[in-house]
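thread from #wetlab-drylab

HS: before we spend reagent money on co-crystallization trials with guanosine-5'-triphosphate, can we at least see a predicted complex? here's what I'd submit
DV: go for it
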Amino acid sequence: MQAIILVGGEGLRLRPLTCNIPKPMVPVVNKPFLEHMFDNLKKHNINEIILAICYLPDHIKRHFGDGGDFGITLTYAVEKSPLGTGGAVKNAEGLLDDTFVVFNGDIFTDLDLTSMIAYHKEKKAKATIALTPVEDPTAYGVVELNPQSKVKCFIEKPSWERVTTNLINAGTYVLEPEVLDLIPSDTYCMLERGLFPDMVEQGVPFYGYPSNAYWIDIGNPADYLKLHHDILMGKAMARFPGKSMADDIWTESGCNIHPAAKIIGPLVIGRDCTIEKGVRISGPCVIGDKCIVRHGATIDEAILWQNVKLGKDTTIRNSVIGNNSVIGDSTWITDSSIVSDDSRIGSGNKLEHGIRIWPGSIIEDNAISF
Ligand code: GTP
């Protein structure tokens, strides 16, 4: 079976992490997010994948090529300008030959696709949508079902008075090729806000597939951090690079970790990192390739991308530091803050309250101070 992954969005909510790279390439436990999606597809013998791309397409193509290195066959459906989730699927029509699966490219899930596809066939559905329960459905697209699990209606971001179910659109669909006839060519169109409600109104056999599988949308920084937390704490299953060095510490080759560094896992460290004496790390944490953590620094539930340099006595807590950034001595970065790529944060600064630092920023010593 073929799958289309929709990866053309700009990922505005995840900025500044997505200023230089598209959201599907953002690293999750030291490998691009999309590779985790491929892992789940391969588990269900879906090896033929079409990427519907638009924003920063070369980034994705350069890394994945024809998919051979990743054990899949990849083709690309490129949009000149964004066509929306429906238009993007229509744009891939020439590459499709039978029943296919569509995924939003920012969903991490261990949904049982094999059983969802079997359910779709058994119901003789034209479309089947995966549904996941959430505590607060008011921020999502809610999907109401009838007792036979047929979709009754879609309600986008309902007020609490209108909430009748906690099941939301999980961004995964099984579709029959006939559905493509309902989508106009070269026209902006959204599946969830245009095509799907119209299909329900026209009486097309459209079923919901509720599931309690792990599910998260990494569309914003808090959920990006949460996914790391959940993977490292064993709530979400994922494969990541590195060998287990101790109970819950994984490292790649070339790391120099001082024996007097105090490390409490879970922790994943990439290649060629240096962790100096007196460093304290409290997991869950991820440290990318070629990072240097100087004497006395503290890293607490944080994520460092590649080639980050942390100065002496610096504290990074519950925050993300992008590629090639240099953080001076005795600086605090806490509370879901983000320092994006190639930034220079001087010594003695205090960045907190979810502050977002854009790529290439320079903050002088003691500019945002205690
Ligand atoms: P935000 O800008 O933060 O809303 O992110 P987004 O647009 O990247 O993601 P959103 O949650 O709105 O979209 C869900 C999925 O559909 C994401 O994986 C997007 O990459 C993808 N997507 C959204 N719009 C398009 C589009 O016009 N074309 C393609 N190919 N994919 C799209």
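DV: The first strand starts at residue 2 and ends at 7.
HS: ok that's useful, forwarding to the group
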